[in-house]
Design a protein that fits this description.
Layout lengths: L1 H9 L1 E3 L1 H19 L6 H21 L5 E6 L4 E2 L4 E9 L5 E7 L11 E6 L4 E8 L5 E5 L2 E6 L5 E7 L3 E6 L2 H12 L19 E7 L11 H7 L3 E6 L5 E7 L7 E2 L2 E2 H18 L3 E7 L3 E8 L4 H10 L10 H11 L4 E6 L5 H17 L1 E7 L2 H8 L5 H26 L3 E5 L4 H14 L4
Parallel strand pairs: 3-11, 14-17, 14-19, 19-20, 20-21
Antiparallel strand pairs: 1-10, 2-4, 4-7, 5-6, 5-9, 8-11, 9-10, 12-13, 15-16, 17-18
């Protein structure tokens, strides 16, 4: 009995309408002292309110399971993307009710205003959709779904608690990966900024002999087949396949810098996942290496069906470190793991020219055996500062320093190019498009 009573009052909430009605009764009682002609009006109002309150309690509590709610969530969430979740709600009362719903979302979002309101007719069912955008990989714990029900009287509200604690993993941006995958399959990459590269020459990967059509390169005419058929025949070539593409991700403290809620490491992880997927669609072999003060995870290059899942599982757990990158260990690992010439895409960040020069000897050694592409980031905040007009001496000083740092980034690109190392200097939000662009350009020019 004590437990039932505790459940009764812990799930009972008084509404503003009830407080307003009580305040009106108090005012009537006060006025009755000054205006005796009010008589028993305050008593009638009070007992009427009491009767309505009892009736409201009765109709809400006479049904133990008046509503049902359930959270509909995907098996995993995509980092940095808008993920759709839903709440299914069903009215089991015999009358219309006003519903308020609180979904206890994970603490990582730091949101306490996830509140939904709706009205349900008798037996009606609804699905309420909302979006969440996680900015960190890892496990996110969801709590209860709490539903507050009010009748048409609206004097009290009954709370229903639906225990649906669940943990959802947040993986690197697989939604972005699927978007690029669909574009690549349908040859529509140009629609999202992937530029078309003019092919220089042709690949030596033979595909078939076909009839000549205007526009074919006359240098590919197969004279023996032409003599046999009595019609012009040409050799058709296709892109070279099974080339190795390795993404190397720097996990050092330089990658902890935040941008729009995500660290640079997260941007690099999302871009690596998309690039690996596009490489596999192009029938190349994709691999992965992570490095901090020591070598982290290694996924040897392959092109089987499960390769992308292996890469995703590894990237899901990666975190930034607090020490400098061990470039010597990285060089030794590339010599040991990469058995043939490969495209090596190194995601890192340099904020000063000396930081690049410390790593340059090892980058040059890697570039001797592989096609090295160094990807690092623009400091967009400094770029914005350098473009703003200076209004005083302090503004001139800040603008000068910002321009110096921006100029140093351009010097880094020239420094790498002087040693035959390709590079991409990009804003974080353009990282994926610029990286895939460069990969397609390298494939088109047959540089691997």
């Amino acid at each position: 009995m004590k437990k039932l009573f505790r459940l009764f009052y812990t799930n009972l909430f008084l509404t503003n309408r009830l407080f307003g009605a009580v305040a009106a009764c108090v005012v009537l009682f006060l006025l009755s002292f000054f205006f005796p002609w009010l008589g028993i009006v305050p008593d009638i109002a009070f007992y009427a309110l009491l009767a309505l309150l009892i009736a409201d309690l009765f109709i809400l509590y006479r049904v133990t399971d008046g509503v049902f709610a359930k959270r509909l969530a995907p098996e995993r969430l995509s980092n940095s993307d808008e993920n759709e979740l839903s709440i299914y709600i069903e009215n089991r009362y015999g009358f219309s009710v006003n519903i308020g719903i609180i979904d206890e979302i994970p603490e990582q979002f730091q949101k306490r205003d996830v509140w939904f309101t709706t009205t349900l007719a008798p037996g009606e069912r609804k699905q309420i959709n909302y979006m969440l955008r996680p900015t960190r990989r890892g496990e996110y714990e969801f709590g209860f779904i709490r539903v507050f029900v009010r009748s048409a009287l609206g004097l009290v509200s009954k709370r229903y608690n639906f225990e649906q604690a669940e943990t959802l993993p947040v993986y690197p941006s697989f939604l972005q990966m699927r978007k690029y995958e669909l574009m690549a399959i349908s040859n529509r990459l140009t629609e999202i900024g992937i530029k078309k590269i003019r092919r220089i020459g042709h690949s030596m990967e033979f595909e078939q002999v076909k009839s000549y059509v205007p526009g074919d390169d006359y240098r590919t005419i197969n004279w023996k087949a032409t003599a046999r058929r009595g019609d012009l025949m040409v050799n058709s070539y296709t892109d070279e396949k099974s080339q190795h593409v390795y993404c190397i991700i720097d996990k050092s403290r330089a990658m902890r810098m935040p941008f729009e809620g995500l660290s640079l490491l997260d941007y690099a992880i999302n871009a690596s996942l998309v690039l690996s997927n596009v490489a596999l669609l192009k029938e190349d072999k994709a691999g992965l290496i992570t490095v901090g003060e020591k070598i982290g995870s290694i996924v040897p290059a392959d092109k089987n069906y499960a390769q992308l899942n292996k890469i995703m599982e590894v990237l899901y757990k990666e975190k930034t470190r607090y020490l400098e990158t061990n470039m010597e260990a990285l060089y030794v690992t590339t010599r040991r793991v990469l058995k043939q010439r490969s495209l090596v895409v190194f995601f890192t960040n340099y904020e000063s020219l000396p930081a690049l020069q410390r790593q340059l000897p090892f980058l040059r050694r890697i570039a001797k055996f592989h096609l090295l592409l160094v990807v690092f980031f623009e400091n967009t905040e400094l770029k914005n500062l350098s473009e703003q007009p200076a209004k005083d001496v302090e503004g001139i000083y800040i603008k000068t320093i910002a321009e110096k740092f921006a100029y140093d980034k351009k010097l880094m690109v020239k420094e790498l190019a002087s040693y035959g190392i390709q590079s991409i200097l990009t804003a974080p939000q353009n990282l994926t498009i610029n990286t895939v662009n460069r990969y397609l350009e390298i494939k088109a020019k047959q540089k691997i």
